[in-house]
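Incident log, structure service

09:12 report received: a user says their structure output differs between two submissions of the same chain.
09:20 pulled the input from the user's history:
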Amino acid sequence: MPAELRILILLNIPDIQSLISIVRASPVFYQTYVAARQDILNALVKRQFDHVDIAEAIAAVRSVGLHARTASNKEEIIALLDRRRRSRETIIQQQSTADMSMSPTNEPANCAESVRLLLLSARANFFMEDYCRTIPCPPWVDNTRWASEVLPLRLSDSEKARFLRAFYRLQTYCNIFGVPENDPDGGSRWFDTFDADEMWDLFFGTMPPWEVEEFGCMWAYLRRKYTRIFEEIALYSSRFKEDRPDTTSPACFELYPDCKYNT
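09:34 re-ran on a clean worker, output below:
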């Protein structure tokens, strides 16, 4: 098989797991992948992010390790969130000026970042499928009818976009402002670097109200998943029950602009 045909096959692989499988199964395809790795990964990334602005996922990836408890991260956090917010402006400006030297907020910086984006996309899609299968029945719908006729939900493209956008934004929020699982700084939190108004203006204040609602719904869905896991563990561990960990999701009062922290 000609190399050009192998590259064409790899350029049309549907997901990262299929790409990993074919590359590991065939030394010839592995060599082809290595020779055209960036183009292959870029093509796969574009297909995976056809429902939502890729800048949201890029912000989630680049915010790892950029926690606001470290005061020296403040300027970089502000710059990252500003680039995410202005991503569409950047695309228009690049197209109008042909200035490709601008900050790459809408494309991965390298192969490693492409892989991280694809893995994050796979996790987002896993939770979206779980959401469609397990979303609780609202009180005004009969439980039997909900289970037999409604589930699994079939989301439209716009509904998928809203789910994924909220997922990536929650990941970005938790990376920057969330509660770390292990805090070596003895309990320092983001409000040692930002006050509540600054946090709101940087993050929630850049969203229209309905996108804040999306974020809140995603927070509620994932917190419910965590709570269920913790409850099952607590059944078999009295020590865990006494010292039950919190999730890295934001507290619900953080979703309102008039909140003030008592620090």
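09:41 both user submissions now match this output. Likely a transient worker issue. Closing.
09:42 reviewer note: Residues 1-48 form one domain. The CA atoms of residues 31 and 233 lie 45 Å apart.
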